Amino acid sequence: MSTLAVELALKSVLLPSWQTESRRVAVDWNPTGVLIDRVRNGERGDVLIAIDEPISNLVEAGILRAGSVRPIARASFGLGARSGAAVPDISTPERFRQALLSARSVAYSQTGASGIHFRHVLERLGITDAINAKATIIHAGFTADKVISGEADLAVQQISELMSIVGIHLVGPFPDPYQKHTDFSAAIFAEARNPEAAEAFVDHLSNSKAAAIYARSGLLPRLQVAS
């Protein structure tokens, strides 16, 4: 079970380099909020990749194995637009605000960390009603898909998620003071059906070679690699 934030890194390199004829991984991709709700409702897997805070809560609850948590990456929030479209300047708070107001529609997630943070940003900018009147809000998945489909001009999500969609250009990160970083870790379920494979997979996600993959995928590696 994995957050969407690391999907590009895993699908592009880390999963293909792990899987063999005798070693396969089935991944359930969803926002952390959706994954945590499902885990609390009784769903289990072997490994969970999610935001640090709910990971810690699940360790305390005995759902994830204590001592199995490995920090892997940090994500930042950004805006994406269709490749070839005019790219707005969002380098300052005022230009960021104007870019959002000028867009025909802004796509953001209802349940993901990016959408939760974006709602707070809109409140601070004083444009909640103006943006939500024309917003394209999704329950799960990639907001950039709504830009590709023509339903929105701009997509709000973590930069690594925006980079996952072909045909999307990264406009840029949220400017300070509206930026926020989200830390992700991998952990093993206490009731993992394949504990040895789970341990090996988490090692694969948190070794020194994985750091470059995360960096190329719009993430900041935060691996704790034993020397």
From TrEMBL:
InterPro entries: ModA/WtpA. It comes from Ochrobactrum teleogrylli. Pfam families: SBP_bac_11. SUPFAM superfamilies: Periplasmic binding protein-like II. This is Substrate-binding domain-containing protein.
